[in-house]
Design brief:
Number of domains of chain A: 2
Oligomer: heterodimer
CATH superfamily of the largest domain in chain A: Fe-S cluster assembly (FSCA)
Strand content of chain A: 15-25%
CATH class of the largest domain in chain A: Alpha Beta
Distance between the termini of chain B: 33 Å
Radius of gyration of chain A: 19 Å
CATH superfamily of chain B: Ferritin, core subunit, four-helix bundle
Helix content of chain A: 10-25%
Number of strands of chain B: 0
Chain lengths: 179, 261
């Protein structure tokens, strides 16, 4: 048994401690934002056992989009992180309902996106309807902060982003679209 | 339920229905992915590839549920890679060849509108798993409808050339739209069990939305009696197109079963 495992005490099994580990796992495609800030981790449970030895850790995650290829990697990274910290008894559940929304992204996460050059999602969900030729959302340029920007394509480098361009500084940028 | 125990008849119909939903998405997703790297402009190539990814992702969710219902060791990959054409239950519309960009757009539009109204019913259905998968998918389909309807209008009400191509596409695809609303045996059964409404139920809403967009696109309406199609893709009777798709899509797993990289 490794030293790490022997050192596990009751404190390290707390749900708060597991949330702390989850905050250190980053989205593989947007490596500045953690899976907690993204709203992907929905629940952390530590099931109690009689003598509190080897309790089971259950992590519930939800995909941003049905086909998000990062999900498999995220699941594996959670597993690796828990194993690294001496937790062997684990289950990773995927939950589809309620469906993920950009409302679950933390304020801190949105700020990190902006700093990375990705415009964070607007708080409003008002344009998420199937009607054609809607007025496009006003998206602020993450580089020069101008609001005078235009959408280039509703679909960007990953399923969760749209392509925009700033009319002021001319820089193209990704917008994490409201969903 | 223990492995290898045959599933009962009612679960079997739910299993068939789940495969039908999965197959529709996989085959259309695969068709769309054939455009990856070949789109008319980079942004639209990416858009269609994104839609393909959404569809294949939704298909995976349905296949995983089908594997759970079957409970005999089958996995999502077994269903996608190791079944023959006559075991696929997708509608004929989604397997039709890509043709030009206009035909691909129109096929996506006709299917997305169908999927949208169908999933609005399914997200309220009594089967919890199907309700969850469709609730998630609906948010994605909303984007697909917006994107495809804007393109149908842009091309239909565009140049003489683009209008003529959209007319041709409509002519080629309209014979496959009636099948969407003709219930297969398993659809009748699960409607009887109260899991899902009869697909006829969403026909009027589909037609209303499709006609509104076609009108704006200055394209003719689909006539009510254009169904010359005697095959039922839902029941495993397919056009030759599906065999070509599968022979390409499955070739690796057929040659090297269980291969991973």
């Amino acid at each position: 048994m490794s030293t790490k495992q022997q050192n596990i005490n009751h404190q390290s099994f707390s749900e708060a401690a597991i949330w702390g580990l989850m905050r250190q796992i980053y989205d593989p495609e947007i490596p500045v934002i953690s899976i907690v800030d993204l709203g992907i981790v929905r629940a952390v449970e530590v099931s109690s056992t009689v003598n509190n030895l080897n309790p089971k850790i259950i992590i519930t995650i939800t995909p941003t989009y049905s086909g998000c290829p990062a999900m498999d990697v995220i699941g594996m990274n959670i597993r690796m992180s828990l194993l690294e910290h001496g937790f062997k008894n684990m289950e990773i559940k995927t939950n589809l309902s309620p469906a993920w929304t950009t409302d679950w992204m933390s304020a801190e996460g949105k700020e990190k996106l902006r700093a990375f050059g990705i415009a964070p999602p607007n708080p409003s969900q008002s344009v998420c309807s199937p009607a054609q030729f809607q007025e496009e959302e006003v998206v602020q340029c993450p580089h020069c902060n101008a609001h005078n920007t235009k959408m280039v394509s509703r679909f960007g480098s990953t399923a969760c982003k749209a392509l925009y361009q700033c009319n002021e500084c001319q820089e193209p940028f990704d917008y994490f679209k409201c969903h | 339920m223990t492995p290898n125990q045959p599933i009962n008849i009612s679960t079997n119909q739910l299993f068939n229905y789940t495969l039908h939903l999965a197959d529709n998405n996989l085959i259309l997703g695969h068709r769309n992915s054939e455009w990856t790297g070949h789109g008319p402009v980079l942004e639209q190539d990416i858009a269609l590839s994104n839609i393909a990814l959404d569809l294949v992702g939704q298909a995976r969710n349905f296949y995983q549920y089908a594997a759970q219902l079957k409970n005999d060791g089958s996995t999502e990959d077994t269903f996608a890679y190791l079944r023959d054409a006559n075991e696929f239950k997708n509608v004929l519309l989604v397997e039709q060849s890509n043709g030009d960009w206009g035909k691909t757009i129109l096929r996506q539009f006709l299917f997305s509108v169908y999927q949208y109204y169908l999933y609005q019913q399914l997200e309220k259905c009594s089967d919890r798993t199907i309700a969850s998968i469709t609730e998630k998918a609906l948010k994605e389909i909303t984007y697909h409808i917006r994107w495809s309807s804007e393109w149908v209008i842009r091309l239909g009400d565009g140049t003489i050339e683009s209008h003529a191509r959209m007319n041709n596409a409509l002519h080629e695809l309209s014979e496959f739209t009636d099948e969407l609303f003709i219930p297969a045996s398993y659809e009748i059964e699960i409607a009887r069990q109260g899991i899902m409404v009869d697909p006829v139920f969403i026909n009027a809403r589909w037609r209303e939305k499709v006609e509104a967009i076609l009108r704006e696109a200055t394209l003719p309406f689909l006539s009510e009696d254009n169904n010359k199609q005697s095959l039922s893709g839902k029941e495993g009777q397919h056009t030759e197109n599906l065999i070509h798709i599968l022979s390409e899509m499955q070739s690796l797993q057929r040659a090297y079963p269980g291969c991973e990289w």
